[in-house]
Amino acid sequence: MTAQARPTVPLDFADRTPEEAARRAADFADLMGRRRTVRDFSDRPVPRALIADCLRAAVSAPSGANQQPWHFVAIGDGATKARIRLAAEAEERAFYAGRAGAAWLAALAPLGTDARKPFLEVAPWVIVIFAARHGLDSAGNRIKHYYVNESVGIATGLLIAALHNAGLATLTHTPSPMGFLTDICGRPANEKPVMLVVAGYPAPGARVPAIARKPARETITWIGGDER
Fold it and tell me: Does this model's pTM top 0.90?
C-alpha cells in the first residue's frame, strides 16, 4: 500500500541575478547592522496597519511540523499598557533587589537598566509573544507541539527585522516571571508568555549605550563553499 500523496502547490520564488542578490544581501546587512535596542521612545502614533504587516512577516516563519505554535497580542490601548507596566515593574523591582544575583546585575550594568520601564506606556505598541506549549483539538484533547522554542524564536526574529525594516525602533523585554501577561491578554493556559517587543519611534535625541557587536571572525565559521 502506498502512502497518499500530500498536496502541493507551485513554489512562489523570485530567482535573482547574482548581482542583485549580492546587493540586496549587503543592503539588508547594513540596514540590520544599524539596529539598536531603544529605551527612550516617543509617543508618536504608529498606524495599526504598519504593525499588522510586520506581524504578517513574523507569522511566515517556519515551524516544527508547521504547527505555528505562536500567538502575538498587539497592544495599542493605553490602559492595558499601563497595567502591563505596573505588573512588570513590580517584578523588576524584585529582580534588581536581589532575585537576579550579583553576576547578572554586573552583566547588565553597562546597559544602564533598572526597574523603571516607562517605555511600556510611552511607546505606541507593545507586542506580547506567546508560545503554545501544546495545542488543543475541537474536543479539548492535547496535541503535542514540536520545536516550540525554536519556532517562536525564529518568528520573533522576523518580527524585529520587519519592524526595523519599516523604520521603527524596538526593545525586547522579558520580565520574570511574566505570568501576569496571560491574564492581562486573556490567553489560554496552554500558552506561555515569552517576550514583550516594544515598538515605535525613538524619542528626539534618544541615546543608546556605547557598545559594539562581536567581530564576524568570533561568531562565524566557514567550512568550504564558493568564496566568489
Answer: yes
